[in-house]
Design a protein that fits this description.
Number of helices: 6
Order of helices and strands: HHHEEEEHEEHEEH
Low-confidence stretches: 163-171
Largest sheet: 3 strands, antiparallel
Number of strands: 8
Strand order of the largest sheet: 1-2-3
Shape: elongated
Distance between the termini: 73 Å
Strand content: 15-25%
Mean pLDDT: 80
Amino acid sequence: MEKETHFLLNTPFKPSRAIITLFVVYFIFLLAFIGCFTALPALSVSDLNPVVSVIIAVIAILLLAFFVIWARLYYESMWYELREDEMSWRRGVWFRTTGIVPYNRITNLDLRQGPVMRWLGISTLSIQTAGYSGQAIPEIKIEGIEHAEELREFVRSMVRGCTTHSDGTGGTTPPPSPKTTDQQILTELVRIRTFLEKKN
């Protein structure tokens, strides 16, 4: 029986819709954290006007509703695509961000899954490249992915099988052939000889 493949070349794919829930849960945690140090002390005052309590609750609800809308729009803007020699991605609601990562620049593939992500059955694949190796932030994060292990193995196989170098525009250039010092000296001597023969 053939194993089901969830990722195909030249076929854009999106994260799981569970990423919307993940964003909302994180935002609720953030609101609760802020509320513990700001709104909660104010609400605990015995002579606090009830109107203030209602205003604080309404602001929190409006912020949450706004964030839920933003999370849905952000999810709709996200996509990734694996090609023969590179991967591309796009995301963003107000400010769109796109990028292309050639496989021959990829140095690390790390899976991350926190408690909430584990509960939702999704993971994040962080992709580090040669130019970003010294930085803590990966060049690209494929977020909210189900079957993340399969995706990591798929990308890893593309990295191993990459025989050409992408020029970052979808085109390819042949890989440079490494030359030893002796070969470089010989090449230079041949050039000098050719030049002198033409001169005589």
